[in-house]
């Protein structure tokens, strides 16, 4: 392109005058510049049209003068190849996630299946026992102890209900005595002719109110201890008994299933089922034996705890009631100290002004 331009520029005519000076020098230079830009633009267009295709260029892997084997055609490098690699990686991740989800779903399905089979067998055993068609495992001594506990709990609940009602009624009586003592004290100030009589009654009611608050403290302590024994200690043992009874039902259900399979034909498939049933039977038997041992231990400790607690609480209840109705204030206070019964200060049962608002 430069040689062509120089050749054309050499043949250009530059006008000069008689003295050898160039004519219209500025105009000639401007015209030459325009010609040069026109030629450059035409040559650039030719290069753009006839130049090499970018898709057919090559990348030399070595330095200058390297072997021809190091030339890599750029047309062989395609964008979709990179995208396909990324797509393959994403597909692997999706496949691993799907396999994980499938594994979780299979585990849930297996658990539901086992639960359904177990429920069916237990329901079948329960109806068989109810209609007298099936046999059940019975521990006569343990069953008797469980029945005694349930009967004891019902009776203790009745005692708890009655003492709670007594506490409520006695609290109302103490409040009435306090109000009556205040009324007598007020009348003794306003009735000079009956001042002594009203004063005696006011002092008597105040003393009864004070002793009544002490008795209320003893009864509340008794009610709280009975409530803990019935609704926590006994209830915990009964929950273990419920688990034991459920384990007993499952044990009998799998035992009946094993006996039924043992009476059938002894082909290969049946022997496999018998072996599986034997393993399940052993698992249920171990569970049943473990829970039966837990129930026996809890019943023993519950009986010991019940005797200890009730001995203390019944003695407290008797001494407090006797001292109150005998009018023996010193014995009543001594009873409270003996059993570490702390009385609440007057007005502590009333809600605060924040609770009232």
UniProtKB/TrEMBL annotation:
GO biological process: one example: intracellular protein transport
Top-level taxonomic group: Eukaryota
Compartments (UniProt record): Golgi apparatus membrane; Golgi apparatus, trans-Golgi network
Pfam family, one: Arfaptin
Gene Ontology MF terms: phosphatidylinositol-4-phosphate binding; protein domain specific binding
One Gene Ontology term, aspect cellular component: Golgi membrane
Coiled coil: 274-305
Keywords from the named record: Coiled coil, Golgi apparatus, Membrane, Phosphoprotein
SMART domains: Arfaptin (SM01015)
Residue stretches making up the AH domain: 137-337
PANTHER family: ARFAPTIN-2, ARFAPTIN-RELATED
Protein name, entry field: AH domain-containing protein
């Amino acid at each position: 392109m430069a040689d062509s331009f120089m050749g054309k520029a050499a043949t250009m005519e530059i006008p000069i005058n008689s003295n050898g000076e160039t004519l219209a020098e500025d105009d000639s230079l401007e015209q030459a510049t325009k010609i040069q830009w026109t030629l450059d633009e035409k040559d650039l267009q030719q290069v753009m049209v006839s130049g090499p295709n970018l898709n057919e260029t090559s990348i030399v892997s070595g330095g200058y003068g390297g072997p021809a084997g190091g030339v890599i055609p750029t047309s062989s490098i395609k964008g979709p190849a990179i995208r396909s690699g990324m797509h393959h990686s994403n597909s692997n991740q999706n496949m691993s996630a799907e396999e994980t989800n499938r594994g979780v779903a299979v585990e849930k399905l297996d658990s539901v299946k086992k639960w359904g089979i177990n429920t069916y067998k237990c329901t079948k055993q329960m109806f068989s026992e109810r209609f007298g068609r099936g046999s059940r495992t019975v521990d006569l001594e343990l069953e008797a102890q469980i029945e005694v506990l349930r009967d004891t709990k019902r009776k203790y609940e009745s005692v708890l209900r009655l003492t709670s009602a007594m506490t409520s009624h006695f609290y109302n009586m103490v409040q009435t005595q306090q109000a009556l003592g205040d009324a007598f004290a007020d009348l003794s100030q306003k009735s000079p002719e009956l001042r002594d009589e009203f004063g005696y009654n006011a002092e008597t009611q105040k003393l009864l109110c004070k002793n009544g608050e002490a008795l209320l403290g003893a009864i509340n302590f008794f009610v709280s201890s009975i409530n803990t024994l019935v609704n926590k200690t006994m209830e915990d043992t009964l929950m273990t008994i419920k688990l034991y009874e459920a384990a007993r039902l499952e044990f009998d259900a799998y035992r009946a299933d094993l006996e039924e399979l043992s009476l059938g034909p002894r082909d290969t498939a049946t022997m496999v089922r018998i072996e599986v049933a034997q393993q399940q039977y052993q698992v249920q038997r171990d569970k049943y034996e473990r829970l039966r041992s837990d129930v026996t231990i809890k019943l023993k400790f519950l009986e010991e705890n019940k005797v200890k607690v009730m001995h203390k609480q019944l003695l407290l209840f008797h001494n407090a009631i006797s001292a109150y109705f005998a009018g023996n204030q010193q014995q009543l206070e001594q009873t409270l100290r003996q059993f570490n019964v702390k009385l609440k200060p007057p007005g502590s049962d009333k809600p605060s002004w924040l609770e009232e608002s």
